[in-house]
Amino acid sequence: MYSNPLLLNHQLCFRLYKTSRAIIRIYKPILEKIGLTYPQYLVMLVMWEEEIIDFKALSHKLELKTGTLTPIIQKLEKLGYITKEKHQRDQRRIHLVITEKGWTLEKEAQKIPEALTVATGIDYDNYLKYVKWLDELGDVMNEANKKQKG
After folding, report:
1. Which is higher by pLDDT, 148 or 88?
2. Which in 61, 71, 110, 114 has the greatest CB count within 10 A?
3. How far, in Å, CA of 28 to CA of 47, rounded?
4. What's the pLDDT band for 15 if we cut at 50, 70, 90?
5. Nearest residue to 82 via CA among 116, 121, 48
6. DSSP annotation of 100
7. Is the pTM of this model over 0.85?
8. Do residues 100 and 51 make contact, with C-beta atoms less than 8 angstroms apart?
9. Beta-sheet strands, E only, within the chain
């Protein structure tokens, strides 16, 4: 343990925050080439996986509140990458559907992982180690949250 555990740089949360911001800064110029912001890119990653998804399911998958997600969806819809459709059985529910233009964007986005590798210099083996470690840390934190809620 640190001699002074209350120093800012001794906080795991702050180190993760700094790292997250650094990652987003790396992505920014790469994503600008295809006209997306980082949050828009996350939504499009889900859309390329799912093709059609319920708005609430997308909110859950990205762990974003619907109020945060709404303007992102509106912008992607305005750009023509997705459309909204009402659920056939429940008109209150909204499905998001990827468009042909959204699929075309996926072809451009194929270059992003390699561009990220070049920008960071992280080789594939280290990338896998980081992903594994972050998944393990996420599991620990989620378990702690469950215990805390009782």
Report:
1. 148
2. 61
3. 20
4. very high
5. 48
6. H
7. yes
8. no
9. 52-54, 82-86, 94-98
